[in-house]
Amino acid sequence: MQCNTVTTIPKGLLQLRDSLSSMMDSLYKDPKVAALMNTSMGQYLNGHPFLALAVLVFGSMATVPIGIFLTFATVTFIGATVGFVLLEVFLLSLGGVSLLCVLSALAILSILVSLVLGACYITSYNVLNFYYSQRYQNTQPGVKTHTHTEALHLRF
């Protein structure tokens, strides 16, 4: 049995096919698309439209996760950089304050040590001076000697 039925295509569907065909022609005339279609990959995708559609869908759907990841990486990098700078500033400030405290303590300690050594020097100088002046006076005849308390009153 032969089927002699002829199907007719509706007029709206023919117009849609014509507009789609003209849009594809204008797309193929674009220099960038023409350069892509002249490559072996372009010819392969032209021969396998379902694979071309799958690559197009994958590429369009992959942009959102890739964009989110790149945003995360950028924010993390900026945060780490700012955190590193702030940490360095904090550590340098802490080290500077520690150095200032140590140097201040050394300055105070050096003043105290110099005061103690100066007092020891003055005391030993006066004691030795008093001792040798008493000894010198005791060895010379006719020189009046002073008592210890009188000598102290005379000195100071």
Automatic annotation (TrEMBL):
This is Promethin. The chain crosses the membrane at residues 50-70, 77-100, 106-128. Its main location: endoplasmic reticulum. Coiled coil: none annotated. Belongs to the LDAF1 family. The keyword Endoplasmic reticulum applies. It is found in: Endoplasmic reticulum membrane; Lipid droplet. It is a multi-pass membrane protein. Keywords: Endoplasmic reticulum, Lipid droplet, Membrane, Transmembrane, Transmembrane helix. The keyword Transmembrane applies. It holds the Pfam family Promethin. GO terms for cellular component: endoplasmic reticulum membrane; lipid droplet.
